[in-house]
Amino acid sequence: ETGYYNEESRSGLTNAKLHLDFSGFAPGLKSETMIAYNIYYFTIKGQSSDYMAYIYDPVTEERGATTHLGDSQSEKSGYGAGYLQDIQFYEKLYWDYATGGHKVNLAATYLRRNEAASTSSSYNLVQNYIVEAKYNYADKYFVELIGNCAGSSALKRGNRYGFFPAIGAGW
Fold first, then answer.
1. What tens digit of pLDDT does each residue of 75-115 get?
2. Angle at 105 between CA 99 and CA 107, to 5 degrees
């Protein structure tokens, strides 16, 4: 008989997003905040495939073939159960300014993501700190500078964070 498995699962997702305009305090200043929580529970039931095995005993030099039945004790056996969980937080503070043909955009962003999985007892924290500066003249000339400090707890200590700069220009 061939093996099979069935996965039964439940999942939940919650997101909240908030936009704030601080133009009354500082013209062009805005904020964007997001929080997300995702959860996924699962149970796997099934049976391993039956298979033929060739056995050799080096001490007695006996050889032979045997049939092994799948691991099912009943119609369905449990393979495993667990959950995957993801929590995210995002905050962006940005300022837009325009006068004459000049446009300036400055932004600071923070992103944090916590991931956990019960099946592998793993936990991963990912963080990003991003700073952006953009300049545009007459919608014709562009300059953009970006600095991204990104890190992950999945990486080796001492190498968990890196800085990734970028520059762009166009006309």
1. 555 667 889 999 999 999 999 999 999 999 999 999 999 99
2. 150
Give per-residue pLDDT as tens, 133-160.
999 999 999 999 999 999 999 899 999 9
Single out the residue of 166, 169, 83, 163 nearest to residue 128, CA to CA: 163
Single-letter code of the amino acid located at 28:
G
- For 19, the token pair is 């936009």
What is the rounded distance in angstroms from the CA atom of residue 82 to the CA atom of residue 10? 11
Amino acid at the residue 107: A
Residues 6+ apart with CB under 8 A from 60: none
Cβ contact 86:45 at 8 Å: no
Helix and strand counts by DSSP (H, E) for the chain: 0, 9
Cα–Cα distance for residue pair 116/44, rounded to 1 Å: 19
The rounded distance, in Å, linking the Cα atoms of 91 and 98 is 23
Confidence band of 73 (pLDDT split at 50, 70, 90): very low
Of the candidates 142, 129, 66, the residue with the CA atom closest to the CA atom of residue 101? 142
Which residue, among 85, 55, 53, has the nearest Cα to 70 in the 3D structure?
Answer: 53
More confident residue, 167 or 73: 167
